Amino acid sequence: METKFSVKDLDLFYGAFQALHHINIEIPGKQVTAFIGPSGCGKSTFLRTLNRMNDLIDTVKITGYVSLDGEDIYSGVDVMKLRTRVGMVFQKPNPFPMSIYDNVAYGPRCQGIKDKKSLDAIVEKSLRGAALWDEAKDRLNKSALGLSGGQQQRLCIARAIAMEPEVILMDEPTSALDPIATQKVEELIESLKKDYTIVIVTHSMQQAARISDKTAFFLMGELIEFGDTNQIFTKPHDKRTEDYITGRFG
Amino acid sequence: MVELSVKLEEENSVECALFLHYFEVEVLSVEKEMSVNQRRVMMEKLFHGIFFTAASIAVVSVALIIIFIFSRGLQPFFPGNEFGNYNPISFLTGLNWRPSFGTFGIGYMIVSSLLATLGAILLGVPIALLTAVFLAEVAPKRLAAIIQPAVELLAAIPSVLYGVFGFAIIAPAVRNISPYSTGNSLLAVILVLSIMILPTIASICTTSIRAVPGYYREGSLALGASKIQTIFKVVIPSAKSGILTAIVLGVGRAIGETMAVILVAGNSEGGIPSSIFSIIRPLTVNIALEMGYAAGMQQQMLFSTAVVLIIFIIIINLVLSKIQKKAG
Prior knowledge:
Chain A is an alpha/beta fold. Chain A has helices spanning 43-49, 79-85, 100-110, 116-129, 133-136, 149-161, 179-192, 205-211, 229-234, 239-245; strands at 3-14, 17-28, 32-36, 60-68, 71-72, 86-89, 167-171, 197-201, 214-219, 222-228.
């Protein structure tokens, strides 16, 4: 199985505070990898190193090596180009205050695509890909803020896939959604993994067990255990992983 | 109550003493509490009254000013005016103001006021918006901490000093490039006004850009957009209502400004400005220059000028409240 991200000896500091300790992980392509762990364990911070969103924080310092398809993403890579290859969906649905159409077309337009026909095609394809087309096709020019929370999150996924990325990072994408909307997003993730590599941070162990192929358990800035989801949840090698998934803390 | 306690004391039994004790502790304290409560209720009412009076002063003042100006300013247009009648159409569209000939046309002043305001907005808003973007999005915190107070200080400078600055620096500079012998002109007014409205617009824009939630920026950057694309395509559109509010306030300030404008406008007796180098006479200047000595019909016509000005201001405020309602 091909490796998408390869991370070696990654340390991350917020000022003097070390948030990530010596992370080593190989994230496989075209699979769903879940990051689990208690709040503040560094799983979201680590996710954000994969598309360099931590660059936005002045005090962050990163050492180590992160590669995408063998290419070091922290040296000699154009950050904007990187982010078109590695899309992201956030915890709180964050559609822009513009129409549904403009939201999906935003990324392609930023890349200089102006042709109306190509944009129309991209918008339809992306909304279909995010299972939102049937609900949105008659209101493409209405504000995206009028959608429900679950629809907004699927719109954000559509917005991400409009860029035809290789990887989609998801930072607790269902934590602000109700159970039915959560189920729809989970079904969507299931159908996306044949085309995309998905890395998802989740608070819910059930969610990780349901949708992921691989699971990584983080604790206090360290990667404790990484393996097949099945193995992690049934035969964890590490005592701390077992304590966490059996609900002894977290 | 006193009678009761006297009566009880006369009985002089332990039970009675106990009852008396209970009476003093419970019943009297309840009464005391009630009086404290009553005092608080009274204070509440009193302060409600004081607050209401204070708020009323503003409402009454604005009502009085409007009624006063309208009643004086509309007189020449109704029959039975002691100084004679004037046709409101020739007042509003007239291109000459010659009180000694009984000619009172303010059409050219309306045009001057509108042109000066438009020019100031066209010049001032882009500069103010770029300043705001720089302060809120681009500048390192330490640099912003120096520039922002400077911008705010600009807002605090009295308008007469803007006028002096315009008179001593801007008008002579305009004269150097003007075909006329004076630098006092529409251009000089526009330049002074655009500097005057700059700080107000820049401050409000800065605040509203800073209020744009960070997750919009993150969402845009995560899609591979550049910082500049993020600012112009997401941040500024999201701050739209704040920016519009700032522009409308700028329009209000520009159209109502008097002191600074008097010093650089020139003193045109008539005619629509033919170029940006023409001398002009905005509505405010007309009122300020002549009100001190005017009497009779001339004074009434100055009030009529004020009516036109106040209608502009009311329209601007209606637009403003509409924008703010829309923004919720």
